[in-house]
Amino acid sequence: MGRQCHGHAVKSGLAEHHYVCNALLHMYCQCAHVEDAVKVFEMVPGFDAFAFNSMINGFLDKGKFDGSVRVVRSMVGQVEQWDHVSYVAVLGHCASTKELLLGRQVHSQALKRRLELNVYVGSALVDMYGKCECACDAHSAFEVLPEKNVVSWTAVMTAYTQNELFEEALQLFLDLEMEGIRPNEFTYAVALNSCAGLAALKNGNALSASAVKTGHWGALSVCNALINMYAKSGSISDAWRVFLSMPCRDVVSWNSIIIGYAHHGLAREAMRVFHDMLSAEEAPSYVTFVGVLSACAQLGLVDEGLYYLNIMMKEMGIKPGREHYTCMVGLLCRAGRLDEAEQFILSNCIGTDVVAWKSLLGSCQVYKNYGLGHRVAEQILELKPNDVGTYVLLSNMYAKANRWDGVVKVRKLMRERGVRKEPGVSWIQVGSEVQVFTSDDKNHQWINQITIKLKELIDQIKVIGYAPNFAVVLHDVEDEQKEEHLMYHSEKMALAFGLIHSPEGATIRIMKNLRICDDCHVAIKLISLVTRRRIVIRDTVRFHCIEDGVCSCDDYW
Fold it and tell me: Most CB within 10 Å of its CB: which of 61, 238, 255, 324?
């Protein structure tokens, strides 16, 4: 219809008229036909703020940053003619391309013209600084706004969430409500994503209830954020419930539930949802195949994974990226084909990808291929000399082989390079309070009750076959001292606290800052058996959903 109108304007001799050109630009950009918009733009004589603004937004909406760069460069010399929409458009370009220097220069120009007090320009500044990882500057731009609306509040919350300042983002949500500002669907989505970052299930449930009361629960962005929050908080069944209740879904909805299932070790469910997605004629995206290949890796489906990577993605016009290749490395490792995994890394130009090498290193430990493991560790340390996890895995390999001289060598190297092992920290929410535990912390206010509970649990699981795994203790000390050290690992302390303070039969959810160790994994599986509790642990690798002595990871992580 727009093209027909354009044709009529050409026949009428009005196509080059100033207002007609601007209307055509706007129409083509809104209809996502940027190429046609460019042809019209080239006919616009001189500088016209509306035309330039339309072109920048058109390129940004299509993700064509090279095009927006060209338009911005041609605008710079005409800064005196910019209107407030021009500032918003150029700042949007800076945010999308993370051009902080240009963003600061535009901010300076806005200050000269007192436009930083304009709520639209101010919100764009907040967004730009947030995406350029300058949360403090984003907050400063927000604070100077004389009038703050829901858009500016949502923008600063988004800036905090993007920079992983989740608690601060949730505090802003409370401040917003105290100021009498009514949150919209995007505000709720940002707050729920902050809960996802903290795995704060109770806060997420409260926000969900609030969204129901205000009539925002059914909004697509809110439902997508709810799926993400439940999946990252260890309640994948609730994520699935939200997914089923959605009145309409987009590719983000499908991706969130597929990746959620994959992270919970429910690979078959992830694959089932993927096939449902294809049946619903929803086109998979780049992210979809990251989840699908992760699921294939958990199931050891090498041939299927190669089919999706080499054939289906090509048919759908999706170019494989680093994440897909890294998933394939994990898939080959899971199948025990470690040499093939090494060759795959080298042959697919991801030899500089530390994540891929670390996946192979972890598998070398699982399959006790210490020779390859040492070689891979050396490769990682060449790329990233201060990677703490690599030193720990290398030290673990030496310890499991009773090579204490190797452990000493690794520790000496860490001291020389100034690398420190991050202490194990676990946290658990009981009621409205979050309790934090550090490994070997004997000063916690509940330490006496926790110690009694831990000893009771250890005695119970020893009866059904538990034997402390001294290989994960990196100190060459007596076995009695090793056993005590293992007992006071942070996740065991958090679990004991949860068992003491939660109702009988309640699910226990624990978060950990490091990969769960082999001994804790075995012990907690047995504890779930003797206590008849469902225990969900989120470590840096994945979720471990443990029930009746069985973990969703199939003992591979």
Answer: 255
Single out the residue of 529, 550, 534, 455 nearest to residue 502, CA to CA.
534
User: Are 159 and 139 contacting, i.e. CB atoms less than 8 angstroms apart?
Assistant: yes
Q: Looking at 113-235, list the stretches that DSSP marks H as alpha helix, in order from N- to C-terminal side.
A: 119-131, 135-143, 150-162, 166-178, 185-198, 201-214, 220-232
Q: Rounded to whole angstroms, how far apart are CA atoms 69 and 300? A: 44
DSSP reduced 3-state for 125: helix
Q: Which amino acid is at 56?
A: I
CA distance 554 to 357: 22
Query: Which is higher by pLDDT, 72 or 372?
Result: 372
d(CA 260, CA 451): 35
Q: From CA 196, how far away is CA 200, in angstroms rounded?
A: 6
The CB density around residue 323, as the number of other CB atoms within 10 Å, is: 18
Side by side, the strands of the sheet bearing 550-551 are 433-438, 425-430, 508-512, 535-538, 543-547, 550-551
pLDDT tens by residue, 22-69: 888 889 888 878 888 888 887 766 667 888 888 888 888 878 888 888
Q: If DSSP codes are grouped into helix, strand and coil, which group holds residue 389?
A: helix
Q: Domain-by-domain residue ranges, the chain? A: 321-421, 425-551
On the question of pLDDT at 96 being above 80, the answer is yes
Fold classified for 321-421: 1.25.40
Predicted confidence band of residue 477 (pLDDT cuts 50, 70, 90): low
- Model-level pTM? 0.84
Burial of 39 (C-beta count, 10 Å sphere; 0-12/13-18/19+): exposed
What lies within 8 Å, CB to CB, of 229 at 6+ separation is 192, 193, 195, 196, 201, 204
